[in-house]
């Protein structure tokens, strides 16, 4: 029987439950982090926990109620034994917990905190993705939920369903002014010569940890980075397009809205993908 960690104790999966008054269940009042673990060690754990604190601050949730880096490391090491693989996906979910009916949260929340560890099979970065631009969903740079990993994921779910209806792997979500922001689960990048491109923060995207890592790498290797706004139609000007997140690493994009993108083997994509994968496996700090 798979186990999870919930509110201070390890529990069998079928024994972990929420009260019907939990605000995360009723209102989506909470946030989460998805992390990669390799041989029991969580990659970029300190950075993930810093971002978890940022999520908490954005919704005025008491940071001191969150587990510590040491707590999460020990919990994941224990749960990892049930995975029986080298890699696992870790999800740390925080709900504000129960409260009275209405929108205002309780002054002294009693949160629900859940940590799960599940098997994960890394994907070849060269296994290309087919992306389609969502016609339904836009990123709102003013949205609190859009700026954190909110447990209300309906926008991403709707965009993913839309891409699936086109026989695509994922959706490109645009900003409110029609420029490329990100996909449902990853940041997006382009390569043109020795220049790296990615959408600017003002598109309403969620700045992922893999994005931060890549931008640091670009600075360290002396590569120029462009944040110029791009419409989906402008993506075919790049030598290659790829996505990045802290779980899957890098994934090359084969097609955007049915149009074939460039050849990644002719760029520095392979080098960068290996650098990111090595960091995820060895837990190198950001």
UniProtKB/TrEMBL annotation:
<comment type="similarity">
    <text>Belongs to the class-IV pyridoxal-phosphate-dependent aminotransferase family.</text>
</comment>
<dbReference type="GO" id="GO:0008483">
    <property type="term" value="F:transaminase activity"/>
</dbReference>
<dbReference type="Pfam" id="PF01063">
    <property type="entry name" value="Aminotran_4"/>
</dbReference>
<keyword id="KW-0032">Aminotransferase</keyword>
<keyword id="KW-0663">Pyridoxal phosphate</keyword>
<keyword id="KW-0808">Transferase</keyword>
<dbReference type="InterPro" id="IPR001544">
    <property type="entry name" value="Aminotrans_IV"/>
</dbReference>
<dbReference type="InterPro" id="IPR036038">
    <property type="entry name" value="Aminotransferase-like"/>
</dbReference>
<dbReference type="InterPro" id="IPR050571">
    <property type="entry name" value="Class-IV_PLP-Dep_Aminotrnsfr"/>
</dbReference>
<dbReference type="InterPro" id="IPR018300">
    <property type="entry name" value="Aminotrans_IV_CS"/>
</dbReference>
<protein>
    <recommendedName>
        <fullName>Probable branched-chain-amino-acid aminotransferase</fullName>
    </recommendedName>
</protein>
<dbReference type="InterPro" id="IPR043131">
    <property type="entry name" value="BCAT-like_N"/>
</dbReference>
<dbReference type="InterPro" id="IPR043132">
    <property type="entry name" value="BCAT-like_C"/>
</dbReference>
